[in-house]
Each structure stands twice: as C-alpha cells, then as structure tokens.
Amino acid sequence: MLVLGTTNEGKVRELLELLEPHGVGCRSLAGLAGAVEVEETGATFAENAALKAAAQAVAVGAWVLAEDSGLVVPALGGAPGVLSARFSGAQGDRRTVDACNSQLLLERLRGAVDRAAHYACHAALADPGGRIVATSSGTCHGVLAEAPRGVGGFGYDPLFIVPEYQRTFGEIPAAVKGIVSHRGRALRGILPAILRLVVAPR
Fold first, then answer.
1. Which candidate among 91, 120, 165, 186 keeps its CA 20 to 30 Å from the CA of 141?
2. Would the pTM of this model clear 0.90, i.e. be above it?
C-alpha cells in the first residue's frame, strides 16, 4: 500500500486518477493512525516534498509519496512559490483559502503587462524507514487570466490559462489536465520507481 502524503482532497483526487490505472493501491493521510503534521520549512518545492515524504513514512511505517507544488509568477519575483497554499494567510476551508489566495494574486498583478506564470511540482518517494529513494519534477507554463474562469480544479486553476487550449485549468476536463499538468508530469516521472519498488515486490 502506498500512502499519499497529503490530506488535500484536490491533490488526492488527481494522484489517485494517475496511479490507480497502473494497479497502485493507495490511500491518503486523512484518518491514518500515526500521521503527523509536517512543517514545510524548505526553501524549495523539492526540499518540502522530501521533508514530507520522509517524516510521514517514518510516522506511519509505510511507503509514502509526497509532493510539493505551487504557482511561480516571475513578475512577482517568483511568488507565491512555496507559499502558494498560504499566500494570503487566510484561514478556513480549502475553498475559502483558495478564493482569498487568488484574490490577492489578482490584486498584486493589477495593471501588469507580463502575466506569465508556471506551475511547478516536485515529488518524492520514501521507503518505510524514511529514506528518499526517488524524486521527480514537472512544470506547466501558461499565463494568468484577469478573472477566474471555470469551476474545475482547485487552488489557482481557474486563473491559469494553458496556451495550447486557450482555457484555464478550471475549464478543461480533468483527464486533459492530468496529461499536461505539472503534477501529471511529475507523477509520470516517478511512476517507474513506484511500480518497481512498491508494486512489483508483492
């Protein structure tokens, strides 16, 4: 059994859609005995992914796949970056926090000519002893809309326009997002290690 090192429902849904067709049995941290809160003190997505994977693997005694991801906006000096999920400092349910984060992002970009952005995702796989045995990364480049479009996805998705489709992640089907997204690319990069180390030994 592979444990997904997150309780974020949007991330869990996307990860399950990517992994289950390959016969990877997995579950999230939600309600899992022993799971711990991991402080994301890393300066990069890669550092945070490794921190979460290693700590949770030791805590629950299982293989753990963790990822850290976010939106990078060059016009804002790379913000929100590793602070993407807590950019506005808002509290509440995920939907409320997402809305506040997106609103602050739009405020910071008001009048900006350069609205280029990219999503980045780093994934790390840890064995039950907490050793990182595989990592991967993925990016997806786009531009930011001036107002949310679509109700799909989560986080900044309704603002992130994918140039090839001229639609936001909030508008395109989940299956399409899984192919072109940063998370989809990172997961496909680490999948061979999961199949070799977690699935094959059974």
1. 91
2. yes
